[in-house]
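Worked Example 4.2. Consider the chain below.
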Amino acid sequence: MKKLMMAGIVCALFTSISFPILANDNEDNPNLNETVLNYYQKANYVVYIPQKAAITFDTEVNSIGELKYLEGNLEPDAYVTVSLEKQSPLKDEGVDAIPYTVYSGEEVFESVIYDGQTAIGTSTPLAVHITKKAWEAAASGDYTATLTFLISYTNPHEGEDNE
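Applying the procedure from the previous section yields the following structure tokens:
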């Protein structure tokens, strides 16, 4: 019984002793042991696009809200582009349409770029411009148009090693 108990104690001591095991991939210097840590943070961003906007009759410049850069964690030199991809005619249920142009400030809006230096909360105001002549030619009716925005992320270093 004493031998069995002693064998148990020796076994317990043997399993509780730790032995260092070295991982060595460096064949040039077997005394150099390194651990390389890698981590990749995926880029993320949040851009707000207004869902609805009302236009006031006989007003040449109608604010329709603003694009807002709400959040961003972009890779170096990467950027987010928000572009006006398509705009449908401002039409009533019949065949009448009111011509309009989307602006941001004093420029016709095509796109805006938000990069890693863009402050969170940056906004890009949007407005619809309709000429006095277009308003005068418009027949009565319920007019609707749809603006389609495309949001894209561009990383010029795509495919490069992220070490």
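Helices lie at 2-16, 132-137. The chain is about 15% helix and 35% strand. Compare this with Example 4.1 before moving on.
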